[in-house]
Amino acid sequence: MNAATRVPSASGRPGFLGEVMDRTPGDNRLDLCIQCGSCGGSCPAGREMEHTPRRLFALIRADEREQVLRSNAPWYCVSCYYCTVRCPQEVHITELMYTLKAMAIEAGLFHDTSLPDFSETFVDYVEKYGRSFELGIATRFNLRHHPLSLTGMAPLGLGMLKRGRMDLTPHKIDNMAQLTAILDKAKALERGLQ
Amino acid sequence: MKALFYPGCSMQKNARPYLDSLQAIREDINLELQEIQDWNCCGATEYMSVHRVAAHALVGRNLALAREQAGDTDLLTAGCSACYLNLAKTDNQMREDAGLKDTVNQALAAGGLEYQPGAMKVRHLLDLVCHDIGYEAVKARVVKPLHGLKVAAYYGCQVVRPDYDGRWDNHEHPTSMDKLLAALGAEPVDWALKTQCCGGHMTVIGPDVAFGLIRRLIHGAQEAGADLVVTLCPMCQLNLDAYQVEMNKHFHTDYRVPVLYFTQLMGLAFGKKAKELGIGKEFVDAAPALSRIQAEAPKVAEAKRKRRPKPGDALPMPGME
Ligand code: SF4
Ligand code: SF4
Ligand code: SF4
Ligand code: SF4
Which is deepest, A87, B16, B90, B254, by most CB within 10 Å? Predict the structure, then answer.
């Protein structure tokens, strides 16, 4: 590995802990977690999570790769950053949750496929058009719901259309070639460094 | 004041009233906004969940284009919480992490671009209005003060947290928007939920959870006596407004708390027409609440504002012994 292209910075930590840290951009400080539990106590999604962030981090240290990547916890994270501003060790908790999601997708380990599916659909649109094909953000939200509630949500979609708040066709940016070149290169670098 | 502007996908369509009201008040606050030419979607929280590092290159292109087109300003502003946070995060983490800075720049080079972290100062629109333009400048433009209107300032999560550049007075109970609304003549209510999550991602997992969070916020605002909720984010607005209707169906309740953007209230106080500000496109009709705006400053509200009582406190009643 070329030191100049390291992603993001070599933590020097062994095992799964090192892997998670090295794949999380920024000074993520995961190795400084003191297991105080402030994060779990602050989390609005804590009750739905199979593991609180504190427990997840303990499992990471214990090299429990599969149990961590199978956990629903990162998928229930709403990126509210409560834990992050309250953590006495300034661990980048929310950022680590993103890393765990990406690693779970890669490893094919997640418990409910609709969640990664949604993320990947969104990514596809961005990569094809450079903009999210929103059908208004309403569609984005409707897409997120289970099909049953989708029918229930139809009036909402109609309401958005009526108010001129929803598009029916995607917009495309002008310099799509440039964006594609940038993303391809970034992904190649990311892959080379895993 | 000139700033580069990142509108984001939602402001273009679903949050059009936000964009329209911003355009309507721009000149009053002397804000020149230059849209980044050919910006791309920032990927919300989704791109980063799939491509952890490439997500920063996606945002990096916007930062690089902004720098290239900026000319004599280094300010970059966005109105959407997620858009703002993504721009600020990439800039911050490239500063913090030399490896990331290098990777993003190698990727940008494939498109003939480059970005030096720190070259743009990323600000959420509310931050720019409150802290760069300032309350006095806003107050000076008020021709129709919003006297008699009780408002719950709702900040959501991703603007005041994690707050890389230390722009906010408090991460859980900020007061900037409250002060802005007070400068417009409105009466901000005290409430505890101003930075609690509106459900954002929860809607993925199951509407039940999201509805619970939305109800809590709407109920909290109503309990505190607010006529309406004021927001700074297209997604918060959508969740609290459009989904309030769905939430009512779910719980068999009948909440009707309108949700407007702070720019729309600024526009009203600056004497603009409701239509020009996109008012009327919300799901929960704001008209009944807006009809409470009085020509004269209510004396009681003045006294209350100075005392900053907790909701439920009795008001001082001079001469009533
Ligand atoms: S708050 Fe920080 S230090 Fe405490 S358990 Fe969570 S991550 Fe670890
Ligand atoms: S950012 Fe995620 S993990 Fe942290 S408190 Fe919010 S929901 Fe919980
Ligand atoms: S975060 Fe949402 S609004 Fe902002 S650019 Fe991305 S899709 Fe559009
Ligand atoms: S309050 Fe909701 S929409 Fe707004 S930033 Fe937080 S999660 Fe996103």
Answer: B90
A83 and A103: one domain?
A: yes
The DSSP code for B313 is P
Instruction: Give me the percent of chain B exceeding a pLDDT of 90.
Output: 80
How far is the alpha carbon of B156 from chain A, nearest alpha carbon, in Å? 8
The number of beta carbons lying within 10 Å of the beta carbon of residue B296 is: 8
| Tokens 């990777």 found at | B103
Residues A12 and A98 in one domain: yes
**Domain end marker among A90, A107, A124:** A107
Closest to A17 measured CA to CA, from A76, A111, A99: A99
Given A81, A107, A133, the domain boundary residue is: A107
Q: What is residue B21's three-state secondary structure?
A: helix
Chosen for mutation from A112, A169, A183 (greatest number of chain B CBs closer than 10 Å) is A183
HSE at residue A192, side-chain half, CA atoms within 13 A, is: 13
pLDDT digit string, tens, across residues B128-160? 999 999 999 999 999 999 999 999 999 999 999
Give the structural domain span for A24.
Answer: 3-107
Least confident of A61-65, A132-136, B106-110, B256-260: A132-136
Delimit the domains of chain B by residue range.
2-125, 143-290
Look over chain B and give the mean of its residue pLDDT values, rounded to a whole number. Answer: 90
Q: Compute the nearest-CA separation of B115 from chain A (Å).
A: 13
In terms of domains, do A23 and A82 share one?
yes
- The fold adopted by the segment(s) B2-125 is Glutathione S-transferase Yfyf (Class Pi); Chain A, domain 2 (1.20.1050)
Q: What angle do CA A43, A48, A50 make, to 5 degrees?
A: 100
pLDDT tens per residue across span A33-53: 999 999 999 998 888 899 999
CATH number at residue A19: 1.10.1060.10
The β-bridge relationship of strands B187-188 and B32-35 is unpaired
Same domain, A11 and A100: yes
At the topology level, CATH places domain B143-290 in: Rossmann fold (3.40.50)
What is the domain count for chain A? 2
pTM of the complete model: 0.89
Quick: pLDDT tens for A111-125. Answer: 676 777 777 777 888
Higher pLDDT pick, B250 / A159: B250
Inter-residue contact B64 to B112 (CB < 8 Å): no
Average pLDDT for B97-109: 96
- Distance from Cα B266 to the centre of ligand 1, integer Å: 40
CB-nearest to A179 from B61, B162, B209 is B61
ipTM: 0.88
